[in-house]
Amino acid sequence: MRRPIMAANWKMNKGVAETSAFAEAFLPLVSGASAEIVIAPPFTALASLASALAGSAVALAAQNTHAEASGAFTGEISPDMLKELGCRYTIVGHSERRTLFGESDEDVAAKALALLDRGIRPIVCVGESLADRESGKALEVVARQVQGSLAGFPTDRASDLVVAYEPIWAIGTGKTATPELAQEVHSAVREALTGAFGSGAEGIRIQYGGSVKPDNAAELMAQPDIDGALIGGASLAPESFAAIVHFDSGA
Ligand code: PGA
Question: Which ligand 1 atom sits nearest the alpha carbon of residue 231?
C-alpha cells in the first residue's frame, strides 16, 4: 500500500511571521491524520518552520535546490544547506521552474540525484502544457519528462522518490483535471516508472497537482494511481489544507 502524501507548495507566498501563524493554526487540525503531510515554504521561512514543526509528524520541504554542493553560484541554495535545516523532501522541476527559469529535464535529474545523495527525497514534477494536450501529445510528453528527469536515479532508491503530475493548464486556474483524465496520465507515469525501475515502480507515490481543493480531493484520491496531491493555492489557508489532508474522513 502506498501511503497518501499531501504536500503544500507555497511558491513565493508567506514570510516568517505568516508561516508561524499558519503552523500554529494548522498543526492542531491535522494531528492523527493518516496521510503524510509536507509543507514547502519559501527558503526564508524554512528555519522558523522547522522549529514550529519539531515534534510533529509534518515534514519540511524546499521548493528548489541547486545541484552542486557549494561554490560560486550567487543566489543559489545547496542540498546540504537544506539538509542542515531539516528538509526531508524538496520539490524539483516544477513547471514554473521549467517555463519561467528554463530548467530542462537534465537539470531536474541532476537536482534529484544531488538531493538523494544528501538523504533528501525529491518530489519530481512533470506535466504537459495546454498545447501538448490539445495536440494529443500529453501522454508522450509526460512519459518523456519522467524518463529524462529521472535519468540515472538508482533503482534501489525508488521508494525515496515522489513524482508529481501537474498539467500546466490546471495550475492556479481553477480547472482541475477530471479524476479519469488524471488517472489516465498517472497510469502512463506508472508505466514509464516501471520501464525505469521495474517492480519498484509499484511503491512510488504519484501526486496529482493543479487546482486541488477540499471539494475535489476525495474523488481524485479514489483513483488507483493517484497517491497524493501537490497543492498550491488551497494550501495557503490552514483550514483548506487540513480539509485536503483529511480527504478520507468522509466529511
Ligand atoms: P495550484 O498549484 O494548487 O494553485 O493549482 C499547484 C502547484 O503548482 O503545485
Answer: 3
